[in-house]
Amino acid sequence: MIMSFAISLSCEGASRYETGMIAELAAMGTFALGAALVLALLAGVVKGMTGFALPTILVSGLGSFLSPELALAGMILPALVINLLQAFRQGARAALQSVRTHWRYVATMLAFLVLGSQVVLSIPAGLLFLILGATITFFASLQLAGWRPKVSARHQRRTEIGTGAVAGFLGGLTGTWGPPTALYLTALGVPRTEHVRIQGAVYGAGAAMLTLAHLKSGVLSGAGLGLSIALVLPAMAGAVVGVTIQDRLDQERFRTLVLLVLVLAGLNLVRRAVFG
After folding, report:
1. In which element (H, E) is residue 177 found?
2. What is the residue-wise DSSP string for 9-68?
């Protein structure tokens, strides 16, 4: 009887949470929905150019006018689809080799991603914005300042596990695990083409786990699921444009521009967390 009562309370809580998300999505209006579609398009462009930052830009942008949970839900499916396409751009064999090379990082990230995803609904919205905003600002500022850490073979295993744990936990909480991963690959001195492919493989594995985890947590359901599906196509269209630009123009200039945008987005979220 006690178990049945607990299950009933859990189901009622999930139902109230989903009803709240549906009401919020319905209240968005045409303008807000259009803004979400444009954000997905822009996030896809940046993702196509740099290989990362779609979750960061999409979650921080949506978080400017949606709850953290609904913003997180909107990001999940576009990230899953585009990361898989990015990982397999050079074929399945290359993608699998990338995963084998960095299997410790991937395994640790996935484990901590599940942990983070299960506590996301218990964290106050302001704290969630603060975590995301501070993380974005910190890592983007480090890269803008020119920090390029070098990882020796002696410390690589500990670096893989430590960075994977940080990236996974933050990914579960905020849907953003790109900055730690990008720093990690940069520290290893991974060549550009492989760098982008590994990011796709790592993020794709994380996005798949995040999708499953938040189907269970309730974030990816109801209105959250509908929004996430709606953002897939514009994000894909943006990624196609981004890849075309990446092939023709200097990558470093785009990287610098992206980092500047990330710093501004991160500071905006910190402002919202502090001042409301």
Report:
1. none
2. HHHHHHHHHHHHHHHHHHTTHHHHHHHHHHHHHHHHHHHHHHS--HHHHHHHHHTTTS-H
Please check whether residue 166 is in contact with residue 108, taking contact to mean a CB–CB distance below 8 angstroms.
no
CB neighbour list of residue 23: distance below 8 Å, 6 or more residues apart: none
Which residues 6+ apart lie within 8 Å of 261 measured at CB? 46, 57
Distances (CA, A) of 180 to 34, 97, 151: 31, 21, 14
Note the pLDDT tens digit of each residue in 114-130: 888 787 767 776 787 78
Do 39 and 237 contact (CB within 8 A), yes or no? no
| pLDDT tens, residue by residue, 169-199 | 887 877 677 778 887 887 777 777 788 888 8
